[in-house]
Amino acid sequence: MSSTGAATNGRPTGTRPSELVRFATAGSVDDGKSTLIGRLLFDTKSILEDQLEHVERTSLQRGDGYVNLALLTDGLRAEREQGITIDVAYRYFHTPRRKFIIADTPGHPQYTRNMVTGASTADLALILIDARKGVVEQSRRHAFIASLLRIPHLVVCVNKMDLVDFDPEVFEHICSDFSGWAAKLEVSDVTFIPISALHGDNVVERSDRMGWYDGPSLLYHLEHVHVASDRNLVDARFPVQWVVRPMSDDHHDYRGYAGEVASGVFRVGDEVVVLPSGIETRIAGIDTYEGPLEEAFPPLSVTLRLEDDIDVSRGDMISRPHNRPIEARDVEAMVCWMSERPLQPSGRYRIKHTTRTVLAKADELRYRIDVNTLHRHEGADGLALNEIGRLRLRLSSPLFLDEYRRNRATGSFILIDESTNDTVGAGMVL
Amino acid sequence: MSIAVRPRMLRGDQMSYEIPHLRALESEAIHVIREVAAEVERGVLLFSGGKDSAVVLHLARKAFWPAALPFPVMHVDTGHNFPEVIAYRDRMVADLDARLIVASVQESIDNGRVVEENGPRSSRNRLQSVTLLDAIEKHGFRAAFGGARRDEERARAKERILSFRDDFGQWDPKRQRPELWNLYNGFVKPGEHVRVFPLSNWTELDVWQYVREERIELPSIYFAHRREVFRRDGMLYATSEFVELIDGEEPFEESVRFRTVGDMSCTGAVRSTAATLEEVVAEIAVTRITERGETRADDRISEAAMEDRKKEGYF
After folding, report:
1. What's the predicted TM-score (pTM) here?
2. Lesser CB count within 10 Å: N end or C end of chain B?
């Protein structure tokens, strides 16, 4: 029995629309993550000859003794020299059905910020568990971060099944162990797949060495998991990015509001409200370079025209009169700290939320969460690099928010250090 | 125009708003371009005449339509150009009614900012970085849009969409700003700037498919034509006044096309008879060698050639 898709040359030649799927992987060198990614790229024919030659040459120079597919994912000189991964790397592969973007992040605790970064845009998280070791601290941490960032789908690959004689009991035990942990988290969709990344079992093709497993191969699952419905198509939110005013002879009175639909569906004729002014009007037109659209939905970048000539500027939010975001001067949020300079109590930061940037003051750190045990440390006096905590922020002027659990686009923000301009925190509105 | 986005009726009145991957990539790129134009003063679009910068220019036009581009277009001119590319550049800029700035490597040489390399293997490729940084400083640009993609090269796979440069124009891979969701941080101080790569998540095949769908005009050298070439280090190069032949190198005529457009001295050609967009896309879809591996001598210099040049301020 073989799964579809990968048997063909993985690179599509036609123009048949294919869907874009982003997934994040986290793990360390020894759990076989790089080997698994290398295998996915290799078996979908996404590795080209010169890249493979490079890996073969480097493997030989390093004395690895085998073609080390893990080298495909090591980008920087420092990483190759030290054999470590220091940052998020992005990889791409196609099958005839889908185009995949992998955010490949290192798994150690000191790289929590990179994992959070990779997870922020992911439709799916791939967690690797070594069949010999079972669920370890790192697996629990990855699952927690996936749930914190609201990645809709989780795939747990139990790897190195060849080293436990493809024993179904080992697999079952790990599944129930992990499920016990996942029950404490808000994870809605978990799929378990027993694999051997090194030998390719259940990666692209179903393995005949695990007849007891009747689920799909990993690639088949990636190709078929339903991601289109993960978007919020209910709450219409349009953060204004840019006011289009050509002031040319052809378009003398044209005034449009450009942006990316954050959530919901906008149709010509819809009643809308512009925030913060609260003025209500209707959508007169949805423009694109190709011509007008009848409706717009995420993640389309479009330009809206409104029926009434009202004052709208960047940072405003167009929404529906009876379904508005919360206008907030205080924010309760989970924040992941990303800077060597710790979060200062009552520190002042820039906060960027959708297209609006205001000032925020860290009012109160309610607790710091231990990412390995979920224990809440109340009375923590700051957040250091890679730490996550619940924070109350006071804002210099209002933001138009939704809960992150309901809306990833209007429930997320970043904190920027005013003096260094670094991005220091990532926040999810509670 | 031709990439359809249409809602599909499911059972009952449930709608499934499907979106093809090229449209999703396009939308992301337009979002990035608008975001930077809105937040960072004084942007500039780096335009080499290559297919990637042609796509960025096309996306920028879409982002602000029906208004004109809110920033100028800059060509870093090595002086060693394919004449077809310069003609193309001037046509595109005129068509868009954009303002063109030409930053000249020859001027940098004449002013003593850089020293011309000598010998048959010399190239002005590396000198471009100085010309580019000088121009960014002279015009006070805080954001420079470019067409680089993460699938091109190992170091680029780790670079952010908004890539921060210090006041020496340097990229520090270990001090990159975290980039989450679609929230970009374009804050820079005087002297610093960001490079902006809207095509970060595109592959070479995505670019070609998009060029085909959107009917984007490209320089003629991307399509198969007969040209006098010579073989060096296993690659084919166009003969020109800018390249000295080494003993034993014999020019011959061949049907070729170029997969990338750079300085004539370091851009290799591939044997091809693909003369139309359809044929080129079909050829790219089955190719077994990356475009940089096949055609760019500049990336072959060392293991970390690109990483080193990027740290110096290269594109």
Report:
1. 0.91
2. N
State the pLDDT confidence band at A65, using cuts at 50, 70 and 90.
Answer: low
Distance of residue A357 Cα from the nearest chain B Cα, in angstroms: 10
Q: Is the dihedral of CA A42, A44, A48, A49 positive or negative?
A: positive
A52 touches chain B (CB under 8 A): no
Is residue B188 scored above 70 in pLDDT?
yes
Residues B210-214: contacts with CB under 8 Å, at least 24 apart = B210/B22, B210/B25, B210/B26, B210/B55, B211/B51, B211/B54, B211/B55, B211/B277, B212/A15, B212/B277, B212/B278, B212/B281, B213/A15, B213/B1, B213/B2, B213/B3, B213/B22, B214/B1, B214/B2, B214/B3, B214/B58
Of the partner residues B66, B154, B155, the one whose CB lies closest to the CB of residue A254: B66
**Burial class (CB within 10 angstroms; exposed 0-12, middle 13-18, buried 19+) of A83:** exposed
Report pLDDT digits (tens) over B117-132: 887 777 787 888 899 9
Residue B268's nearest CA partner among B298, B226, B223 is: B298
Check residue A85 and give its pLDDT: 60
Closest residue of chain A to B286, computed from CA coordinates: A11
Q: What's the topology of domain A19-230?
A: Rossmann fold (3.40.50)
pLDDT given at position B92: 94
Residue A49 forms contact with B (CB below 8 Å) = yes
Q: Is residue B104 within 8 angstroms of chain A, CB to CB?
A: no
Contact B34 A301 (CB under 8 A): yes
Chain A touched by B181 (CB under 8 Å): yes
The nearest CA of chain A is from the CA of B263 a distance in Å of: 22
Give the DSSP letter of residue A364: E
CB of A233 less than 8 A from some CB of B:
yes
Residue A155 to chain B, least CA–CA distance (Å): 21
- Mean pLDDT of the region B296-303: 52
Q: What is the mean pLDDT of residues A249-278?
A: 95
> What pLDDT does A4 receive?
35
> Domain A326-429 falls in which CATH fold?
Elongation Factor Tu (Ef-tu); domain 3 (2.40.30)
Question: What residue spans in chain A does CATH classification 2.40.30.10 cover?
Answer: 238-319, 326-429
The minimal CB distance from A101 to the residues B20, B37, B201 is found for B201
- Return the top range by mean pLDDT from A2-6, A11-15, A36-40, B258-262: A36-40
Sketch out chain B's domains with CATH numbers: 19-205+306-311 (3.40.50.620), 218-299 (no CATH)
Residue with tokens 């689920």: A215
Contact A263, A407 (CB under 8 A): yes
Residue type, B14: Q
CATH topology of domain A238-319: Elongation Factor Tu (Ef-tu); domain 3 (2.40.30)
Would you state the pLDDT for residue A46? 76
ipTM metric = 0.92
Sorting pLDDT into bands at 50, 70 and 90, what band is A423? Answer: very high
Cβ contact B187–A350 (<8 Å):
yes
Crossing angle of the two packed helices A137-148 and A168-182, in degrees rounded to 10:
50
Q: Do A301 and B293 touch (CB under 8 A)?
A: no
Q: Which residues pair with B144 in a beta bridge?
A: B44, B195
